[in-house]
User: Fold this.
Amino acid sequence: LARERGLLTFTDYHQLYDPRYSIHLIITLTPEQDVLEDIIKTRPLNIRIMGYHVFKIFWEAIESQARKLKIRNEEVETIFNGIQDFITVITPELEIAEANQAFLEKMGYARQEVIGRKCYEVFQQIDQPCSTKELPCPLYEVIRNKGHCRQVRTRLIEKTLFLNSNLLKISGVMVEMDLDPQMPDLVGSEDQLQQVFMQYHLQCR
Assistant:
């Protein structure tokens, strides 16, 4: 399997000492103590050694943290998709990095049809930025003013639907929350969104 993945394989681990391979660390994956002791005695001084038991402790710690992160990511995703407002995460390059289930269902998109595409391609169904002098791009306004920006724009979703775009800048992540203008709980939605995406940002660091 290692050879199939392009990794060097040897029948004698002493061959790893060859300077041509630029080996700086050897990790033993066998608990046999005589192998570890032999490498310690014979290795060049520039090659470090990590024994099986030490490596096992590190590996188990990494796996534990990975499991915790997976659980937390699932929790954040559940909250994110549980919000009924339309939410998209848009990068400063105007690319959609994330979209919640409510947005996808109302817009009639599958997730893979949205992620990685430019926001104007999805929202306005055009092939160039929709910013104008009279109505500048709200994302640009968020970046320029380092604060919130709200606009009302007409977008084509089935027929015509008017949405209130509330953009928040959270640690460099642009978050757009589209709300039906008749929805009264705008402040509550903002607070919920802030909490969710603070978690989102922490886990992307």
User: Anything to note?
Assistant: The longest strand covers residues 159-170. Confidence is low (pLDDT under 50) at residues 156-174, 179-188, 200-205. The CA atoms of residues 100 and 140 lie 22 Å apart.
